[in-house]
Protein 1
Amino acid sequence: MDEFLKNILTIPAPSGYEEEFQNIFKEHIKKYVDRVETDNMGNIIAVREGPMGSPKIMLSAHCDEVGFLISNIDENGFLYVQEIGGIDTDLLPGRKVDIHTEKGKIAGIIGKKAIHLTRGEEKKKLEVSDIWIDIAANSKENAEKRVQIGDFVTYAKDVVFYENGFLASPSTDDRIGVWTLLETAKMLAEQLLNCSVYFVSSCQEELGARGAKTAADYIHPDVGIAIDVTHATDYPTADTKVTGRINLGNGPVITMGPNINSWVCHQLKALAKDIPVQYEVIARPTGTDANVMQLSSGGIKTALVSIPCRYMHTPYEMVSVDDARQTAQLLGQFVLHNF
Ligand SMILES: [Zn+2]
């Protein structure tokens, strides 16, 4: 298994707190590109320069993940949080989290009243205000020696690898996409290009694709492709009637719909004779970097290529590494064939 992939899955980077991850990404991608920039949002923009005046292609994958910020410490040393992004609160009780403090990482446990003591009313869907993090502090004073208001929190990192190339981890959405950017850059490194390629590890996607917006406005690309995860529908209880079936391991997913430029989509589909792909229809703006890219810089021809993912926004988002490899192939071939 790719040690680098394992490494990048375990770096904490909730939206707004991506710096540590971005520094590592920058170090890895710089050997495959001509220059690397960091903007004020914290996006990393790695550029393969094409000939002067040639088209610009922006490939964007977001590095941020969902998480929490400590917003209050009570008299007994329990920590209360606000969520960053779409947290599934029902999954929280009994879970281990990492609190990222100035002095390093400390473990916290999200507490829950024991099942023996839980009454009917208390079994309702949880709000984030119903949960607390326990660091065995016993007093506010004691807790404040270890954590501060504003420290960020992530699920405790744990990567599970399977022999068939599937893996499960928190933040697979969209670190697997960022890894795909790296694989694409690696693949194109030896090739002569007739366009410039901008590899963007974007910030704050989970809060409305805020990083991709500023990056697209800055780059002014002719074509923008977002690389993200999409919902697989190949597990028990998944409803395929309207969405169709999306399988882990059956290749990248090409999206069709109003968010997607028909020429870019057509060119991607044309590559499907050599690369296995799946299709998905999203009849509204997608919840990805593709949404804001299309609306940036006077309007950009935009597409979305996704890696199927089971259990999105849970601590074990499952994907197939082969799907990510095929996605890199698809993007690389798109760049080489069309420009
Ligand atoms: Zn995502």
Protein 2
Amino acid sequence: MARQVAHEINNPLTPMKLTIQQLIRTKHLDHDSFDAYFEKSTQTLIEQIDNLSRIAGTFSQFARMPETKFTKVDVAAKLFSVVELFKNNHENIDISYSGVEKDVCVNGDAEQLLQVFNNILKNATQAIKDGTKGKISVELETINNEILIKFTDNGVGIPLPIQQDIFKPNFTTKSTGMGLGLSLSKSFIENMNGTISFSSKIKTGTTFAIRLPKEHESMLLHSEDI
Ligand SMILES: Nc1ncnc2c1ncn2[C@@H]1O[C@H](COP(=O)(O)OP(=O)(O)OP(=O)(O)O)[C@@H](O)[C@H]1O
Ligand SMILES: [Mg+2]
């Protein structure tokens, strides 16, 4: 993992250095074209810096993994707040929530649940192509002692040949992706004794389903004993 991150960080560094060297050269040699080149290259540099900070962010998700902290978490409240956040940031996509807005608890890690919901919703928004009216629905229901959360998008769908790969670390079909969102989400959910699955149809959309055991008092006592 450390080697992978070193590689990901090293990748943008070379073009960044070249861009700056070129900028210096243009300033000395060619005053006329300097302004245009300055605009273009600073934009490129900002994009590359954003990319590096995203990599650092993802790495710290991994680095934080061993510090799993299980407590009683209101998963409904957490999910509802993430959905609200996405609604505010994606006004062009119709994002709906159905289910109670609080008081459904799991024994789990609050921070990791947040990351899982973020990752899945981010993937859903990225799956919706420009020009189509995006729709994402999030549903939460409780069936006996199990909580079922479904995320359905009307995006591009996942082609059959890659369906077996999407939970693998580093698997991505995106030019800017790290391929870590789903593999992290799967390990977080399985750590909380849950499961994550999906069904998808090309050009129609995808549904991700998360199942988690409802929290019991005894489970909490047990986890505190350990
Ligand atoms: N809702 C979805 N619709 C279509 N394809 C999806 C969806 N969710 C995931 N995928 C596919 O699964 C791949 C792996 O997803 P994952 O979240 O692990 O990585 P990523 O989104 O590519 O990169 P990262 O999450 O690290 O930014 C994606 O590249 C994409 O091909
Ligand atoms: Mg992702």
